């Protein structure tokens, strides 16, 4: 499971570029071009940072169980949410700790966060607004 990085959609970027081209000398046009340049720079930085991250050693199921732990769910709650048993979640978390050479599930969560294998967006439920 990969998360789509936050950013501006291609359609929105196209609309912003068109607006910037309509008023090239105006302050609005210059500001929009500056924003587009900054967006391109940040996306380039994101690609470089992502390429530098170590590969994720976790399976999809192990990652899902670790996200449950990061959210503060009990193993039973994680199992219920995922449709698997408590023992399955317990086993998956044991495998995560072993794979990451972590001494605790909390340490495994920290390792996964530091390496970008789970993100704040994974842990924090989205605002339903």
If you had to describe this structure to a student in words, what would you say it looks like?
The chain is built from 7 helices and no strands. The chain starts with 9 loop residues before the first helix and ends in a 6-residue tail after the last helix. The chain folds into 2 domains: 43 residues; 64 residues, Winged helix-like DNA-binding domain superfamily/Winged helix DNA-binding domain (Arc Repressor Mutant, subunit A, Orthogonal Bundle), CATH 1.10.10.10. It is mainly alpha-helical. Helix 1 packs antiparallel against helix 2 and helix 3 crosses helix 5. The mean pLDDT is 87.
CATH superfamily descriptor of the largest domain: Winged helix-like DNA-binding domain superfamily/Winged helix DNA-binding domain
Helix content: 55-70%
How many strand elements? 0
How is the quaternary structure best described?
Answer: single chain
**Tertiary shape:** elongated
Distance between the termini: 24 Å
Query: Class of the largest domain, according to the CATH hierarchy?
Result: Mainly Alpha
CATH architecture of the largest domain: Orthogonal Bundle
Pattern of helices and strands: HHHHHHH
Summarize the SSE layout with pairings.
Layout: H1 10-22, H2 27-52, H3 60-70, H4 75-82, H5 86-100, H6 105-114, H7 120-123
Helix pairs in contact: 1-2, 3-4, 3-5, 3-6, 4-5, 5-6
């Amino acid at each position: 499971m990969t998360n789509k990085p936050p950013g501006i959609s291609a359609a929105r970027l196209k609309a912003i570029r068109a607006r910037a081209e309509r008023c090239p000398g105006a302050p609005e046009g210059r500001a929009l071009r500056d924003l587009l340049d900054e967006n391109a720079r940040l996306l380039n930085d994101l690609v470089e940072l992502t390429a530098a991250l170590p590969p994720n050693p976790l399976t999809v199921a192990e990652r899902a169980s670790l996200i449950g732990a990061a959210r503060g769910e009990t193993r039973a709650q994680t199992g219920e949410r995922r449709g698997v048993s408590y023992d399955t979640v317990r086993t998956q978390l044991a495998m995560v700790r072993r794979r990451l050479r972590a001494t605790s599930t909390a340490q495994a969560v920290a390792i996964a966060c530091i390496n970008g294998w789970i993100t704040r967006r994974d842990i924090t439920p989205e605002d339903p607004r």
